[in-house]
Write a structure and sequence with these properties.
about 160 residues; mainly alpha; 4 helices; about 0% strand
Length: about 160
């Protein structure tokens, strides 16, 4: 029993802590990337509108049409990216992963100390508590997936 508790302390708790740390970085990067793309399309739109003020009279009918279509599609693309980012709820996942990472990071030294001191009952209770919390986090994630996977894409309306 003693070896299994030490294995759980060294492998499982550490693995959970490391997983949540990686998940935080991964979802923060995804969230940041969507923000860059969204604002990139807004900037491209503004540049196209600004260019059209100066060169619109020099463009032919096709050039004028392409410039307007490009300027019109940029905010549509930005709105679709924004809607997709909200649907994925990356910011909320980062917060949840941060809480779980903090939990496992703070409890691992306590668990190791209890095992080193020979307090196997306290260590076992702590492992059961951590296991319960891990199952709750997994259940919340599963609920989120079930709720969001069947939703249709909603069209963004002005006003």
């Amino acid at each position: 029993m003693d070896q299994r508790l030490h294995w759980a302390s060294e492998q499982w708790v550490k693995g959970q802590r490391d997983y949540f740390a990686r998940a935080i970085k991964r979802d923060e990067w995804r969230e940041q990337r969507t923000v860059w793309f969204k604002w990139g399309f807004v900037v491209v739109e503004l540049v196209l509108v600004f260019i059209s003020l100066f060169v619109l009279h020099r463009l032919g009918l096709w050039g004028h049409g392409l410039l307007l279509v490009g300027a019109g599609l940029c905010p549509v693309a930005a709105a679709l990216i924004h809607g997709h980012a909200e649907k994925r709820a990356l910011a909320q996942h980062v917060k949840q992963y941060d809480r779980m990472h903090h939990l496992f990071a703070t409890e691992q030294p306590d668990l190791k100390k209890r095992l080193d001191d020979g307090d196997h009952g306290g260590a076992r209770r702590l492992l059961q508590h951590l296991s319960y919390l891990d199952c709750e986090a997994l259940a919340k994630n599963g609920d989120w997936v079930l709720l969001h996977r069947d939703w249709p894409i909603e069209v963004v309306h002005a006003g």
